[in-house]
Design brief:
Blueprint lengths: L4 H7 L13 H11 L12 E6 H16 L20 H16 L6 H9 L9 E8 L4 H20 L3 E5 L6 H8 L5 E10 L17 H4 L6
Helix pairs in contact: 1-6, 2-6
């Protein structure tokens, strides 16, 4: 059953456990086709997408997991996603979602081994059968990053509208060189994010995570109403 746009936005979440149920290529293409209606400055449509599934997905995942536990020379961040010095209210929000997730998984504070294992799940696409990778030409400026963000949001909302779930993942950027080798991404493109796509596992405890949102009055100012 298709969800309305409102319900798709309302129920979108970052799912961290998927079933192995496949997502056909034509479904992925349909999601990307609808998502491409996202706005972009002067309609330049700067995004590029690399979709991976099947044996190719498994091979990529295996090398990424191995690099996570023994990074060697492979670890090299593409860009700074987070601030170098955290401050409020963002630090508290970051800590809360982390400990809420670990609490559902039974991971105690200070259990760095369990934390590392959980982080490795990123590189397994949390079990999702499809991985998506989003890139931009390195010559693009900040405006194109905004365009890509709106495109990615469309991908997630359209997928949700079709009864699927997603998890956007910046974790892949640390090992962009591995992703490049497997998917043929040229050095002229910056890997901005990955994304898991599939069917949520209804029995996974981590999928019970309910993230909070600040009330509208906290982040908005209305003038002239």
């Amino acid at each position: 059953m298709l969800l309305s746009a409102v319900d798709a936005v309302r129920t979108r979440r970052s799912v961290r456990a998927f079933t192995a149920q496949p997502v056909p290529r034509d479904t992925v293409e349909y999601i990307l086709e609808l998502a491409s209606r996202a706005p972009s400055g002067t309609n330049i449509q700067p995004w590029r997408v690399y979709a991976v599934a099947g044996a190719a997905r498994d091979a990529l995942s295996a090398e990424l997991v191995a690099a996570h536990f023994d990074p060697g020379t492979e670890a090299q961040e593409e860009y700074d996603y987070y601030p170098t010095q955290w401050f409020e209210p963002y630090l508290a929000r970051r800590r809360k979602v982390g400990w809420d997730l670990y609490g559902l998984l039974g991971i105690a504070k200070g259990d760095t081994v369990a934390m590392a294992r959980q982080h490795a799940r990123n590189y397994e696409f949390f079990g999702a059968p499809v991985g998506l990778f989003f890139t931009l030409d390195r010559r693009m400026e900040v405006g194109s990053w905004l365009d890509l963000g709106m495109f990615m949001e469309n991908v997630m909302v359209v997928a949700r509208g079709l009864g699927l779930d997603t998890c956007p993942q910046a974790a892949f950027t640390k090992f962009h060189r591995i992703v490049r080798r497997h998917l043929g991404i040229p050095d002229t493109e910056i890997l901005v994010s990955g994304m898991a796509l599939g069917h949520a596992d209804p029995d996974a405890p981590e999928n019970r995570l309910e993230t909070e949102r600040a009330p509208v009055g906290e982040f908005s100012r209305f003038v002239g109403f």
